[in-house]
Structures are given as C-alpha cells and as structure tokens.
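Q: Structure tokens for this one, please.
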Amino acid sequence: MSTSPRKKLIEVSLPLDAINTAAAKEKSIRHGHPSTFHLWWSRKPLAACRAVLFASIIDDPSSQPERFPTKEAQDAERDRLHHLIERMVPWEATQDEVLMKEVRDEILTATGGNPPSVSDPFCGGGSIPLEAQRLGLEAFGSDLNPVPVLITKALVEIPPRFANHPPLTLTVKKVKLGSWRGAQGLGEDVRYYGEWLRNEAKAHIGYLYPNAKLPKELGGGEATVIAWLWARTVTCPNPACNCQIPLTSKWNLSTKKGKETHVHPLLDRTTSPVSISFQIRKGLSPEEGTVNRRGATCVACGSAIPFTHIRLEGKAGRMGSQMIAIAAEYKRGRIYLPPDENHIKIANSAVMDEKPTEELPKNPRDFKTSNYGLTSFGDLYTTRQLVALNTLGRLLTKVRE
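A: Here is the predicted structure, written as tokens:
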C-alpha cells in the first residue's frame, strides 16, 4: 500500500516576517556579503534561500503523528522550528558556528543522516548553492553565462578546497599564527595579493585615475573617484544645428530619498555649433533623457533623431563620447560633481598598446552593439579601460612567479 509523501514545513508555514526583515537588511551590508563581490541581476537574498532550503527538507510536525500525536504537540514543535529559522536567517548568524552546527544537525536528524543534494541549473549569483553548502548539503550549480559560473566557483567551489588551512602568505610576510577556521586562511591570501595587485597597478597607471577636487562649500580637499560617467554622442542631423548630442536615457544620478541628484545640460548658443556642458543639480530631473524607444531628441534644436541615423554614425566611426558627471566618495557615501577638464584630458591621454580584436557574435537581435559599429570586444571599452585591463592581466601573471 502506497503512502502519501510527507508534507514539508515550507508547505505549511514559515516565519515570513523574520525572513523578510533579514532579507531586506542584507541590502545594506557593504562588507563581506557576496553581493559586494560582483553585481548580479536579481540576486536572491541569502536569508530567504537559507530558510527555504531548510524548510524544504524538514518535515512539518503534522506529517509525524507518531512523534506529535496532538495538535498542541505539533504546534509546539512547529514553533520550535520557526524559532530556529528566525535565529538562522540574520546575516550575523552565518558566522555563529555553534548555531549553524545546530541547524545542520537538525537536517541530519530529519533525513536519517542522508541529506539530499541540491542542484541549481541556473544558479546566477550562486545564492542557492552557497546556502545549501552552508547547511551541510552537497551543492551543484551551473549556468549558461560564464560570469555567474565564475562567481559561483569563487563562492562555492574554491573556498572548500582550502578550508581550515593557513594562508600561503605565512611564508611571505609575518601573519598572526593561530587556528584558521573555514576560509579565513584563503581570505588572508586574497587580501594580501589583492593589496599587492592594487599597489602595483597604482604604481603603473595611477596617474590615469586622479582624485576629484571638492568645491569650497564642501570643505575643499580631494575625494576618491568611484566612477567617471560618460555619454556617447552623435551629430544632430539638422544641418542648421549640427551640435554633438549626448545619448542618455535619463538625467537622474540618484533617486534615493533625500539625496536626489541629476545632471542638467547647459547650452552655449554663442558657439557654432551649439556646445553643451553639464551642471549637477539637486532634486530629480524635470526632463527625460535624450533617448527612448523611438529614437533620440536633440537638446539644442528639438529635432528628432532616428535610430537609423545613430547607427549609421556609429558604423561610420563618427560616434563620440562626452563626460557628463563624476561620482566620488564623500562622508561614507557618494557625491556627484560636474565634469572636470583635467580629468577629461587625462582620460584621453591613455595610450593603448594592445586591443582585443575578437569579433562579437553577429546576431543583431541579441547583440545590439554591431548595429552601432561596435563589432569587436575591444570596441566595448574606452582606451583607459583597456590600458587598465592589460595592466591587471600582466600583473596577475606575476602573482604566480
């Protein structure tokens, strides 16, 4: 006689408030969280993955009448399991080895010492395999995109190989001796060589990445640049205008409440053609960007610019670029500054010695860049970016020497 499968805890109830709170809190974690390792779209919160995996393995007490014969007994056991989930979902709990052992032991008991393996065929940022491994489960992950494959390898595959081992850098520099738990030794090596790589790169190409000068109203001084924001440009097809139009879908730089900031284009009509510069203003932009699904619009004369014109300009090699803003670190946050002529000059001074020539896939439906004359991998980067990538690549080979 066949028996119906036992209901799992996830099919009956979960402490959703605690899970949601922990998942939301993860967004503000800036150090040590996998989300800071590499940005990935739709990354699943680790707290939710941890809870879902656990509750998918553990039987609901109602499925074990031999152990919990009454509703009261079932409710009490369910409350115990809920409390365990509430304790395990906060990010801080992942460093509590005593608690995580308690969770893993719960899984072993529930599965008779034979826990299931977890397979995620489209693992993305690796949240599910990572949390399965944390729960003591054998985890498998794959993806069609090599980027998430690399992310998941770094999170799930490589650390266990060096678990509980001291760092190799013990032979290179004086490191505090002691017990090395988990991936601490590997982490020490990553920090050591990361610092070495940063210092070497700075010595080679640091001059290409100047600090931003803060205005007097902010106390003056300098700030580390997070990003230089550029827009591609094309010539307006209106023969009476002919100015260089920045192509951007939006002018807003920050939409965070209380920190709204946008770029405002300034037109200098004393020149021919009209020249465009940029100003940083507080609040959200009252205007849309210059590009939408229908094409572009000239900010100087209002002429419509069809995509056919933009694509032809790109294929003819006449598409340019213009810096529209600088993002810099400021008081544990960021600040946006207008373009700096010296920064533009330095960026344009970069001299590339090697450029990738491998062609991009010729599939204009999925790889749109070829429609705009960007046909090789090297075309996707600025000269300064290529110089940085080449420099880092060469330095990485020296790490093994």
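A few notes: DSSP finds ten helices and 14 strands in the chain. The mean pLDDT is 92.
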